[in-house]
Structure to design on (153 residues):
């Protein structure tokens, strides 16, 4: 694992964008419309950071870190964690999350949270091995599409 690096892109690089699209395909079975403009906006947004895990300068994993403030302090939220299926089990995900934890601490965040599908046992086991604790007493709610638009009226 001595040839891996983690980068936070700030400029558009076509090969990075294409790899992110490829990795998104491993993350979800639903179609995700992720355009070049979406990528440019993501890497330019102040409170979000895309971390790309590279091995010998080839992107093999990614995650997005969001930072926000509430009355109870600064928090960090992780989205879209994925390591290429051909590279799993080599310690890259652990390295990626450790770097993310360092960034969260440096930015004054008191906690780091993410969600995981309850059927994804390999990911759950991985997160537990890092010391993460499931938040059994919390339920995530979501509104999208027409429901979101109706709620906004």
């Amino acid at each position: 694992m001595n040839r891996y690096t983690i980068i936070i892109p700030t400029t558009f690089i076509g090969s990075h964008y294409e790899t992110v699209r490829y990795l998104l395909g491993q993350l979800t079975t639903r179609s995700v419309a992720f355009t070049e403009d979406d990528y440019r906006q993501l890497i330019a947004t102040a409170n979000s950071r895309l971390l790309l895990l590279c091995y010998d300068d080839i992107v093999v994993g990614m995650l997005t870190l969001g930072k926000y403030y509430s009355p109870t302090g600064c928090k960090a939220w992780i989205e879209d964690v994925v390591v290429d299926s051909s590279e799993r089990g080599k310690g890259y995900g652990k390295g990626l999350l450790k770097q993310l934890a360092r960034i969260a601490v440096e930015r004054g965040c008191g906690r780091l949270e993410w969600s995981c599908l309850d059927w994804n046992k390999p990911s759950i086991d991985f997160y537990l091995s890092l010391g993460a604790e499931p938040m059994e007493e919390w339920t995530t709610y979501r509104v999208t599409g027409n429901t979101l638009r109706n709620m906004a009226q």
Summary: Helices lie at 14-27, 36-44, 92-106, 121-129, 145-151. Residues 79 and 115 are 8 Å apart (CA to CA). The radius of gyration is 16 Å.
